[in-house]
Every structure is written in C-alpha cells, then in structure tokens.
Write a structure and sequence with these properties.
By secondary structure, this protein is mostly beta strands. Among the domains are: 93-144, no CATH class; 147-193, no CATH class; 203-299, Jelly Rolls, CATH 2.60.120. 9% of the residues lie in helices and 34% in strands. The radius of gyration is 49 Å and the shape is rod-shaped. The termini are far apart.
Length: 302
C-alpha cells in the first residue's frame, strides 16, 4: 500500500498550529491587561481557565504597581510604612567593627559589643537606649568606652571633669573660700547668710550626776535638772565667738547647789547662787573665746 504525502496539507497543518499559538498568547496578554487594579494577581491553570487571587495588606504597608501587558508587576514598600503585630521586629545585629563602612543618618542597629541599640545620628553613631546587659552610655562628647561616674571634692565650686572613660562630679565642701555642700563636720562660711525663718541650736539634755559633763558640740544650748549638789565640769568643744546657754532646774526638793569647772570664768562678781525653791529654773549664759566660757548673766526664778 502506497501513501502519498501532499506538501500542501503539511503546510496547512503547520499554519493552523501557528494560529492557535498566536491566539493563546493574545488571550494571555488580554488577561494581563485586565489587571486594572494592582491588588489582584491572575493565576492561569489552563489557556481558558483563569483563577483570580486577591493580595491583601494593611494600609501603608505594601504597594503593587501594574506595569501593563508584557511588563512585571512592581512590589514596593509604601512611604511611611506601618508594621503590624504585637511581638517584635529584629534590626541588624553586629559588633563595632561590623558597622557599615559608609553610614548615613537614620541607620539603626544593635551593637553587640556594647549591648545597646544605636543609631547613626548627625554624622556619628549614638546610643538610642541602654541594653539589658548594662552597657549604659557608651559615648559622651570625646569620651568613649564603658563610662563610669565618680564623685569628687576638688575645686571651689560645683564642677564636672572628665578623664579617659570616667566622668567626675566634683562637689567640694563649703568653706570660707569655696561654694559647696554643707556636711556634719565643722565648717566656716564666708559672707552674710540670711534665713527666711529661724536659725537656732536645739536644746540638749545633760545627764544629771555628781559631776555633770557638758560637750558643747551639738549642745550649744542645754538643760539639766539637778537632784543634789552638783559640779559642772569644764566644758569642751567650744568655738571662739560662740554663745552658750544652760538652763538649770531644781528638783522637787530644791535647795540644790552648783559649782563649776576651771574654764568657767565669772570675773569680779563671782559665780551666781541658784534659786532654791523646788522646781524653779535659772538660765545662765556665757561667751567663749574657744578655750574659756565667760559669764554674761543669769535670769532666775522661772
């Protein structure tokens, strides 16, 4: 049996195939052009069955741009994007040596050497927040490294000094030549001091006994109730120019006497005699040169 192949029939078949291919490409192009809104992507499972899928997102997150037939769909991050969620976002993490070689303002990263979140701000890397590892401030002006703060007393006024990685807050003690802090030690001040309310020395209570001690440091004014004939031993810790007051009260029996140590000076008039009535109070005053107490007067019978 002989089969005859007619060239014209072969060409007709090829032309028909070419026409079908062109038709399929045309349909595909029409499908792309149909994507008028950027929020859709068409998936084609066969030449005649398109499946449309919607791309969803939150406002200010993702923008889709349809490039038209034959062009790619562009996926971009919107201007001022909003990142959703309630957990966290991880920024780049690296050491100081791994910082970008050409940084620009606005960069943010986690510095693994100093355990801090840092940003490139105004032309330099700066700490944004202390890390949980205790890195704290890692730079301040020209100081770098793990900074520490110390307290000093140098100078004649409050001042801050820096050396290496240590910042020192100098708080000198106040004196006749320096502004500073008032402490619990003896201090001398210069200039006139004015108080808006009262300035006074709180009255201290002395311990009664056959010999009564009077340490005037912290007891510039004092009180004692005597229950027998007593001796007031020489006072201690006076300062030159200080005035001292002693309030003496008789007990319920009365007629008690008081004698004095050697640094109490009464001059030509001699030591006063106390009121003798029970429960009566006398107030005695002295002026000191820092060594002796000079008697200035007594008020009696209160």
């Amino acid at each position: 049996m002989t089969t005859t192949i007619v060239p014209g029939n072969i060409l007709d078949g090829v032309n028909a195939s070419r026409s079908a291919i062109r038709t399929q490409f045309t349909n595909a192009a029409n499908d792309v052009n149909a994507l008028e809104a950027p929020q859709y992507v068409t998936l084609v499972s066969s030449p005649t069955i398109p499946n449309q899928r919607t791309l969803t997102g939150t406002s200010n997150q993702i923008t889709l741009t349809d490039g038209g037939a034959g062009a790619a769909v562009t996926l971009t991050l919107s201007t001022n994007p909003v990142l959703p969620g309630t957990a966290s976002m991880t920024v780049p993490i690296g050491s100081v040596a791994q910082r970008p070689g050409t940084p620009v303002n606005g960069m943010i990263r986690y510095n693994s050497d100093n355990s801090v979140l840092e940003g490139y701000i105004a032309g330099s890397w700066q700490t944004i927040a202390p890390g949980s590892g205790g890195g704290g401030v890692s730079s301040l002006n020209s100081l770098t490294g793990a900074l520490s703060i110390a307290v000093g007393t140098t100078g004649t006024a409050f001042n801050v000094s820096a050396s290496g990685s240590t910042i020192t807050l100098n708080l000198p003690d106040a004196s006749a030549t320096a502004d500073g802090t008032v402490n619990t030690t003896t201090q001398t001040f210069a200039g006139v001091k004015s108080f808006g309310t009262q300035g006074y020395a709180p009255e201290a209570t002395l311990t009664d006994g056959s010999t009564i001690a009077w340490n005037t440091n912290g007891a510039q004014t004092a009180h004692v109730t005597i229950a027998g004939n007593r001796t007031l031993s020489s006072a201690t810790n006076m300062v030159g120019g200080g005035c001292y007051v002693l309030r003496v009260t008789q007990d319920a029996t009365g007629s008690r006497t008081l004698s004095y140590g050697t640094n109490y000076k009464f001059g030509a008039i001699g030591a006063p005699t106390l009121s003798t009535a029970p429960n009566k109070t006398d107030i005695i005053t002295w002026y000191s040169d820092g060594t002796n107490l000079y008697y200035t007067g007594i008020s009696q019978g209160f």
